[in-house]
Amino acid sequence: MPTFPTEPGAVAPAAFRRALAELAGGVVVVTATGPDGEPVGLTATSVCSVSLEPPLVLACIGGGSTTGEAIRTSGRFALNFLAEDQRSLANRFAVSAVDKFAGLASLAGESGLPLLEGCLAACECEVERTVEAGDHAVFIGRVVAVRAGGGRGAPLLWFRRGYGRLLPHADGDGNG
Asked: Whose C-alpha in 20, 61, 142, 168 is 20 to 30 A from the C-alpha of 135?
C-alpha cells in the first residue's frame, strides 16, 4: 500500500500530473468576448456542473490567459461541448494564437457570446462568483441559455494525455 505525504507541497508536480491523467474529462472550448469585442477562447477539461437549481457550472481557467481576462472583464462565458470528430477544434483552441476564430464557423448565442458550430451542446453563462485557487481562477457561472445538438455522436474525451473514446455499453441501453 503506498504511503501519502502529509506535508503541504510534498507532492511533486510531475507525480500530480500523472495521477490526474487517470481522470477522463470531456473536452470543452470556453469562449468569451474580449474588451475589443473580438471572440476569444481556450480548450479546457476542468469544467463541470455545480447545481440544477439554480443552473450553475464551473470552469477552471489558468491565470494570465486572454480568455480568463475576458471573462473577468465581461462577466460572461460560454461552454462549447465538443463531439468526438472535433479534435481539430480542441487542438486549435489549446494553443496560443492571435485569432483562433479566423476562418472558423461560429455564431452568436442568445446572449451574444461566441458559440462554435457543430458542438454537442453549449451553455451561455453569467459569472456568479470567481474563486482564486492556486494558479487558476474558478469561474462559477449561472447558465442563462443552452443549445443542444440532439445527440449528434459521442463526446470528445481527454484521458492519459491524449484523446480517448467512449465505448458503448454491452447492453446498448447505457445502463451497463
From this structure: 142
Between CA 61 and CA 67 the distance in angstroms is 8
pLDDT digits (tens, 9 = 90+) for 153-166: 889 988 788 888 77
Task: Note if the bond before 155 is cis, omega within 30 degrees.
Answer: no
Does domain 25-147 match CATH 3.50.4.10?
Answer: no
C-alpha cell at position 118? 457543430
How far apart CA 67 and CA 42 sit, in angstroms, is: 7
Residue for grid cell 470543452: 28
- pTM of the complete model: 0.85
